[in-house]
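Quick one - inputs below.
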Amino acid sequence: MNHQSGAILVLSGPSGAGKSSLISKIIDHIGPTYFSISTTTRPIRDGEINGVHYHFVSVEEFKREIEEEMFLEYAIVHGNYYGTSLSPVKKALKEGKLVIFDIDVQGHDAVQNRLSDITTSVFITTPTLKELKRRLHSRSTDSEEVIEKRVDMAKREVQRISEYDFLVVNDELDKAAEVLISIAQASRMKIPTLQINEFVQSWEAN
Ligand code: ADP
Ligand code: 5GP
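Output:
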């Protein structure tokens, strides 16, 4: 049974686990995709580009977008707002693309509540907490205080791994990327409830 509608792949995991590194590694190997660019109020980091990594906006602008119901989901993470804009996601799904979200556990919850039948979810983490701290320090993008916040959050996030379909331990980047490519390819094959119902009806009628 082929279907034209798209699917969603949610990637969550502690900041510093390697989600962005993995996404750049796999993006050219998984067919037509749309990587959802979130909107955030967090300060831009060195090397980040507005409109590429995030849409960086003020708190006032973010709150206006909430009021105008422009988000599929939004959450406060590490003290800053982050949100997924609904309209580009709808468009990409219509075009049959795999929509990839790099969102936190709260965002995953919200997406599962609204679109569980087309969603596959993956929790990505380092092999150990110690390695997470090492990567956050070696990335050198955040202050010591911010890193501590992220580590505290990571300890809470890993308690929710069981809510995800898959766990990918990003030890060796190439190996983790290979696993993620397989998951991404399979996630496209997920059949929406409506199409299953249609199939059953036609199966019974013929
Ligand atoms: P995230 O997007 O989850 O916050 P990043 O992709 O920014 O994480 O990775 C955090 C840091 O860890 C970066 O400096 C990145 O180069 C490094 N990194 C990512 N994956 C690995 C890995 N498998 N082994 C060692 N370092 C890694
Ligand atoms: P960072 O500041 O390191 O880029 O991201 C911090 C956290 O925010 C990560 O866990 C990331 O997955 C999450 N995040 C990024 N965009 C969104 C979003 O649109 N919605 C939600 N709920 N979380 C997001």
